[in-house]
Amino acid sequence: MTMKDLPLDERLEDIEPSEKGAVHHEEIINSFSPEERKKLIRRIDIRLVITLGCLYCVSLLDRTNLGAASVAGMQIELDMNQANNGYSITSLVFFITYTIFQIPATVIIRKVGPRIFLSGIVILWGAVMLAFGFVPNWETMAGLRIILGALEAGLYPGSVYLLSTWYPRYELQKRNAAFYLIGSVASGFGGILAYGLMQMDGLAGRAGWRWIFIIEGLLTCALGIGSYVFLVDFPEKAPRSWKFLNENEASFVIAQIEQDRADAAVEPFSLRRYLGNSKDSKVWAYASLYMLTTTNSYSIAYFLPIILEKSMHFSVAKAQCLVAPPYVFAGIVMYTQAMFGDKYHLRGPIVAGNALMGILGLGLLGYLENPAPRYFGVFLATAAANANCPALVSWQSNNIRGQWKRAFTSATLIGGGSIGGIIGTTVFRAQDAPNYQPGLLCTMLANALVVVIVCLMTLKFHRANKRVDAGGKPIEGQVGFKYTY
């Protein structure tokens, strides 16, 4: 009996980072022809990457549509002003619970399973979005944003972790980029969608900005229900996940992961070991990089429509619609970099290059008067911040081994991103309108720090790889494993 003939559970028991195990993995992989592999991977991409991308799209729409609602009259009707800073507070409180619930979410998704967990939280936060359309004051909206943050906390780290369990290290950035691209580019058209929904102003006696939340909440609930059908569980559970893969196909996926980094098997959960992963300095370095990156991406998402209207003097209609083109450009840059990065095993130089592009873009936006070069700066800044998100997620996944450590670092990375959201929503203060110079300076500084940290991490990884080449201590406890930089 060959390895391919064994039931999947028995194959998982045999997974060990040994020479004998490597032969078995090679046997399973070679039992599939190149054409069969392509068809299988394409099927996984469609069910996993596209479904998660659509959920991430509504996630971004639902957390960042405050900017669109603001220019549609929300701030005036709910009495958000400089005295109470209602808009900044409502934007900020989301990230408090979003940060707190990151780490528990990655434990729950492993225990409950992605299909039930992810689809469940999407349906629940869709209901919260519906409630946004009926709030009587900004304080009530702020309270609902706290609940929204707790529910959305599980989607991004859960998705990042789920993707990392399905793909080898150097096939991952393309998938992370596609997942993020679907979400960010589609949400970039949220301004156009919001403008269309604003035209419902007066329908059923409700303001146009309220219809933005009501319709998008209904859309979120519908996608949450649909995701239960299309989402798949972790590879070892895939044969039992709506007959998505048969035993042989699931074993191929697991063999690829085991051959790549030898961590396909799930070790028993231990809270002490799980939290013990916090002792690894690179965990916090990646979280810091993501925090600095999302300081930029959230600032752009929340305040770009307002800057376009108040600082660059575009009409409300133009301000809503001009948000989309920079996100389309960001999607092109993001996926091109992902293809290049996976092919040449590059991560750090891409991240640092994007940060430098962000500094240039923000400089053009903040310190020129002509609207044309300022709007070009928006393209550069938006592309830099958004392209670095999948690049950093992939870089972190490349240099981490172990199922629970991967879950922990996914949570801390995205948790760092939520802190970046807190920074991004507080540095653009109402009293700094219309040019928001302090906020622009802060985001430029964040990009500069990204370059510094990337240089330090690259030096650290280069030295560690040299020690491995010289016969030193294995990296991440795996012989032959080397850092990607």
Number of helices: 22
Silhouette: globular
Q: Whole-number average pLDDT?
A: 89
Helix content: over 70%
Radius of gyration: 23 Å
Cα(first) to Cα(last) distance is 41 Å
CATH homologous superfamily annotation: MFS general substrate transporter like domains
Q: Give a quick account of the main beta sheet: strands, pairing sense, barrel closure.
A: none
**Low-confidence parts:** 15-20
So what's the CATH class?
Mainly Alpha
CATH architecture: Up-down Bundle
SSE succession? HHHHHHHHHHHHHHHHHHHHHH
**Strand tally:** 0
Strand content: under 5%
Derived from helix and strand composition plus strand pairing, the structural class reads mainly alpha
Count of discrete domains: 1
Summarize the structure in words:
The protein has helices spanning about 10-15, 20-30, 35-65, 65-70, 75, 85-100, 100-110, 115-130, 140-150, 155-165, 170-190, 190-200, 210-230, 245-260, 270-275, 280-310, 315-320, 325-345, 350-365, 370-400, 405-425, 435-470. The protein has about 475 residues and is mostly helical. It has one domain (about 15-265, about 275-470): MFS general substrate transporter like domains (Growth Hormone, Chain: A). α8 (about 115-130) runs antiparallel to α9 (about 140-150). The longest helix is centred in the C-terminal third of the chain and has 33 residues, at about 435-470. The model is unreliable at about 15-20 (pLDDT under 50).
Gist of the model:
The chain is mostly helical and 485 residues long. Helix content is 75%, strand content 0%. This is Major facilitator superfamily (MFS) profile domain-containing protein.
